[in-house]
Amino acid sequence: MQITYPTPKNVLRIHLFALFISLGMISSCGKNEDTAPVIGPDPITSDTMFNRLITVHNFGEALADGSIPTDKQDPIFFSLEQKQAVKPDYQRTTRWDISFSDIYRSFINCNHSSAGFGNDGPGKGGIYLVKQKFEDVVNVPPDDVFRRGERAYGTDDSGAFGEGLGWYLYDFGGTLKGDGSEEKKHIAYPIENHTLLVRTAKGNYAKIKILSIYKDKLDPNTWVRSDPQPYYTFQYVLVKAGSTRFEIKP
């Protein structure tokens, strides 16, 4: 049998080929590390978050330049248990509890594994809207009444573009709540006797009162279409899983 030995030129080619493969692997790993966030364990919810009235001021961000009121917007996410915004990188985790999306980012949904933005994640959240004032909502409802991400709550039938029971009245023409002027058109008015109930991604419960989507403004009489929006100011009470009442404790 004849044995063929590699020539010095072939040896050099083999070494160069191996070097290129190694550099490619290193480059590939580097790219993956840059684009894929490292997701550690979820933060622990402090006991101080439960059974107290919590207020959030001006949560949100300005819409893209050139946006019109009917444009659908990308979602933003909020953790009720941590009282903070959550990056979209953590969409399929239990780090967020409610999302704001669609027109004005005014459609609010929960984080559940079966549908919505939490689809295929570990979330066990839910959302349910009741025709009661925030202060009058005392009892935690049974789990089977909560939506599980399949549909968000947004515009109410009492205003324009209503989609059933919603948390706000949309005054498209400015004549339902305003004086019909241009600045009073396209205003979103939270409905006082409609309260959002949320089961968080981890299974705790909250009741939520939306106060305004206009930055630094709480008085509906002062809202105009040129105000910075949507910047949510809202209040909520968080109670632990297994609770039957939304109690505020000293």
UniProtKB/TrEMBL annotation:
This is HmuY family protein. It comes from Sphingobacterium suaedae. It comes from the Bacteria. Pfam families: HmuY. InterPro entries: HmuY. CDD domains: HmuY.
